[in-house]
Amino acid sequence: MRIYLVGGAVRDKLLGRPVVDHDHVVTGARPEDLLALGYRPVGKDFPVFLHPDTGEEYALARTERKSGRGYHGFVFQADPTVTLEQDLARRDLTINAIAEDEHGALVDPHGGVRDLEARVLRHVSPAFVEDPVRLLRVARFAARFAPLGFTVADETMALLRRMVADGEVDHLVPERVWAETRKALAEPRPSAFLRVLREAGALRVLFPEVDALYGVPQRAEFHPEVDTGIHVEMVLDAAAALAPGDDLVGFCALAHDLGKALTPVDALPRHIGHEQRGVAPLRALAARLKVPTEHAALAEIVCREHLNAHRALELKPTTVLKLLAALDALRRPERLEAFLAACLADKRGRLGHARDDYPQADRLRRARDAAAAVTAAPFVAKGLQGPAIGAAMERARIAAIAAA
Hints:
The chain is an alpha+beta fold and 404 residues long. Among the domains are: 1-118, Beta Polymerase, domain 2, CATH 3.30.460.10; 239-368, no CATH class; 373-404, no CATH class. The chain is built from 20 helices and eleven strands. It has helices at residues 8-15, 31-36, 84-89, 112-118, 133-145, 154-165, 174-185, 190-200, 203-206, 208-211, 228-242, 247-255, 274-277, 279-289, 293-310, 317-327, 333-348, 359-372, 377-381, 387-403; strands spanning 2-6, 23-27, 40-41, 48-50, 57-60, 63-66, 74-77, 99-100, 106-107, 120-121, 151-152. The strands form three sheets. Strands 3-4-5-2-1-8-9 form a seven-stranded mixed beta sheet. β4 and β5 (57-60) form a beta hairpin. The longest helix has 18 residues, at 293-310. The chain is globular.
């Protein structure tokens, strides 16, 4: 029995990045061998075990053979005859197909180290096209490693296009699309996720509401980048910088301007009313991908209200209170912070505006704190009851917001 460190742990160590998960491949062993050593089985489709002390994953070396459509359509073989090289050959990218033995020696049959040095995302073998999830994974890795200069190899991009043309992407289940998207939105450069999907032709299949934004013009005095699709890319990257690792803010950024694709052609490049028009495509996208309720709800508020946030210094106190109420910000101040992060990302996600100030955020925070300080107790003490208490509190909150 031999044990090797594999995949992301080796890759990130070579890149000098923090190693989060340590995954291992075990050769020359059977499931009962690991069970006898106290490992706990967790794999449903193939033998994966947790180390009795560290809890790290140890998988038996395996091969896989395509047996049907989609990413479930595989037959696996895992037994003592499967070699490390065979296991590495089934992996997606060369940079993920490097192993390290117990002495620190690397096993790199597919040139992963070379591609790490060249900053290239390259597929391991032609079998890459058999699993449509790999298209999403390549786009997600692009979002993670774009700041380091990584790009997708031309021959790999050709395979991504082939997967779309062959209809493999059509068999992706919504849960898996969302799982990969969610991770991509939390990466440092989410715009690379969109660009890879778009170049492969997959964006129009998986995210038609977003794909429709490319080529839609905006007023150059407000949006020097002009193209709405480019604007969304910039907003995504601004959101990633403002709220690192926060896929909730990332999803709000992704969906905030969907209504601009529905602006009548004769009205362009103005987009009056795009906030309300964006609600329907946002709901369609969230329902199709089974986006979590909170993500969909907050994204809808950002879609409807981001222009009000930009106008916060001019809004009447009554309008500000309505905005805070829509966010449930008096009870959940963290929701206001996520909303403000998405709106600031929208402000900064424009050519030449990456460092813009946003005093509107402090105005809304002060308003929130002032309104939250108003409680029912004084009005109850005055003898008010039922709806009268609520009405009095609303008047007091509006006054408090005006004073703030």
